[in-house]
Amino acid sequence: MYPPLFRPPATPATNSNPIPSSSPAFATPVHPIRPFNPAGAPIPKASILPILLPPATLRPLAFRTFTKKHSLTLTSSALQVLATFIGKHCGTGWREEGLAERVLEEVAKSWKNRSGGVIVDGEGTELKEILKALEGNMSGGRIVVGRELSRQNSLVLGSSQYGEVNHTRLGLRPGNIPREDSQSSLGLSTLEVNDEEDEDGLMDPRKWLKVIDAFEQPRLVYNVAKKHFDRDTSKPSLFPPASHKTLLFQNRYNVIHQRLLRNESFQTPAFQGGKASLQRSTSAITTQQQSYKLTPIANLLGRNRSTHMLLGLLSISPTGTLAINDLTGSIALDLTHATAIPEDSAWFAPGMMVLVDGTYEEDETGTSSRLGGNGGVGGTISGKFVGFFIGHPPPERRHVTLGTAGEGDTTAGGGFGWVDFLGVGSSRALGTKMQRLEQKLLRPTPPDTDADDPPPPSRGRAVILSDVHLDVPQTLQDLKKILSLYSSEPEGCTPMTFILLGSFVSHAVLARGGSGGSIKYKEYFDSLAAVLSEYPNLLSTATFIFVPGPNDAWVSALSSGSTVPLPRKPVPEMFTSRIKRAFAKANSEMEKENGKKGDGEAI
């Protein structure tokens, strides 16, 4: 029996609005609704009075939906396309009846499901295809949900699921809602996530490969007040203010701290019989009662010879002693008698976030006025913290962090499933589709015991080659042997990508000054292009990724091969132009032989 607050009504209220809620936080209807058009009868076309909607009038609503809600940026061309579409298909009720907002919501979700990127451009075909698919599922300016929009999600919730919906609306963890029902939109966006017909036409794993540029990856900062990640909009710089280094470790501390508080070991039980302490373990930090409490360093003042657990950053104090720091202060750390957890495989160095269990000892000699001790909040606390056990913060399983389904049908609450960490779409939006593709394309097939020949190699392989020094003649000879081995494999079974890691020269060739260094550097890449041209079947079917090192252009001209900032820009195209031509030639030759142009590329 449900409590009165969660008890479903005897007869669900009739919902006059056929459009279910598509909120990403719940992804379920507010009330159970009847399946729209269950008999499959054709939907009658409602009359719409088209209008000419200026883009400037639509801009505030589009900005609120795309930018503030979905972190997307609309170009002027995309805004013009959307204004024309909404004016034609929503008519005069685009604002009063909320028709435009629903259309913009579905367009934004479909764009993210297609991994269209942060900028929504109206000049390409992506937005036009989304609007074309949306146009066929609109009636009277409203988006209708037919059978073709959701092949696996039922639009009717049972009574048992209705109680779980109420739990979800109040922020409680749902108990038995499977992942497909709890994360899928009941609108147009399910077209992109659940369309298995499109997946069958793209059975090559390389079609789903996307190389993410480090300079285009979103930079996210954890917001403690919102308990969520915000996008960092500041411009990257090689010479940032000194405060950015402090913000770096502050953000790292906040991320680890919020993850640690979700750990069951740091959740105070309702009935606590005694105090817990760290125990020795071969793999992790364990405890008999699994209950810890973190103490801010500033709260150690006045609590002499009391036991605490600290989370902080290991560092070297100005006096040369080991210290631990958090957001409230710093204190000297004594690890003379500390035991590492795990004892046989733990490493600790300044700059690491650690957990320390021990006792605080006040400075009874009154030396807090010396260098490094001011005895105040935000500075170095007098005395020292004697550690008994020290270990790294325990990790968290991926499905718990994302808040996606775990093992079986259980669903983990909380997490960041809707956060797009890589700029290719969130796990909630694309996770189901990617997992289905992984099962189809990347999982190895079981060997056939009756067959005499071994199974062919997998297409979803990535070959990684490191320290490819092109100025060493032996390197090109060894590279030929490796490429010959993969080139002799059956068609359709060659690796989908080759990753070549620099430095591509054994010394900083551009640091000598003059033009001789750059000429030699280009000759090395021309030699590599000649070697790659001997294997057109690999060039036309694989992606070659070139990762520069500290000796490559142009950073080596300033650093002379020493450490340089990360990430690095790619090798300039003026040096790799012949390699690009080798790929273009291999793709053209494949078109002449098979009638289909190759899609090999060099990045």
Which terms summarize this structure?
603 residues, alpha/beta, OB fold (Dihydrolipoamide Acetyltransferase, E2P), five-stranded mixed beta barrel, four-stranded parallel β-sheet, globular, disordered N terminus, DNA binding, DNA-binding, DNA_pol_a/d/e_bsu, nucleus, DNA polymerase epsilon subunit B
Describe the structure.
This protein has helices spanning 55-69, 76-89, 99-113, 126-135, 159-169, 179-183, 190-194, 196-200, 243-261, 398-402, 427-442, 473-487, 516-532, 536-539, 556-559, 573-594; strands spanning 73-74, 119-120, 138-139, 142-143, 220-223, 228-231, 306-316, 322-325, 330-334, 339-341, 353-361, 380-391, 462-465, 497-501, 543-547, 601-602. It has 603 residues and is α/β, with parallel strands linked by helices. The chain has a five-stranded mixed β-barrel. Helix 1 packs across helix 2 (76-89), helix 1 (55-69) packs across helix 3 and helix 3 crosses helix 4. It is globular and about 85 Å long. The chain starts with 54 loop residues before the first helix and ends with a strand. Mean pLDDT is 76; it is low at 1-43, 146-194, 279-288, 368-373 and 408-412.
